[in-house]
Write a structure and sequence with these properties.
This protein is α+β, with helices and mostly antiparallel strands. The chain is about 20% helix and about 35% strand. The protein is built from three helices and 14 strands. The longest helix has 26 residues. The chain starts with a helix and ends in a 5-residue tail after the last strand.
Amino acid sequence: MRNARELANRMKWLLGALAGLSTLALSACAHSDQPIPGPAVAASHGHGETLAGENAGVRVLARVQIWNGDPPTLSQYVLPIWMQIENHSGKALWLRYSALRMEDPNDSQVTISAVPPFKVNGKAIIPISAVPPEFGIEDPWMGTWLEPGFDDYLASKMSWQESLPTKEMLRRAIREGVVADGRKIAGFVYFPKTKQDPATLTLRTDLVDAITNQSFGQVEIPLAVVLD
């Protein structure tokens, strides 16, 4: 191993760099999700693939396991699902978080309701290993910062915490409100983690007329979700 002075200098530089690494890495990987056309009925259950359902002129798209923002370990604490709701019902659609839920079709006792983003709470632990590889521990002048093997050990031991919800969680969440006829809205919906691990869940969206407050149907999308 190189002498102690050089190692101490590298450690000092590394710890200073980590103070800004979280913001740099997470802001770089955040982006606005773009709608992806999908079939009228869910056609695949792969990670990140678009699933869809439609009823009464309202089309709902959903994508699971695609969160790539702050915090990167969000799926350990809640289940984020990206949704897009397109309204062509001829009515103004009243979208509320209480209208979004997941159910196990094989167990009527299992109902997982969406959590309003501002009510998500807790602390997310983020290990340095969660930072994408493109932001790896490299020094363009001296090569790797630490001796072979020791950088992996250090990465496994270093982590920080962030309070939930993060600003990015709030910014990227789907908004409650009225979706006018001919318009659409998109964003992430956060569901609580559960000890249940059903192989298949059904995502349900209640359709409510914003003028009369009357229900005019549901959109159902079968999801194959791995709750990790």
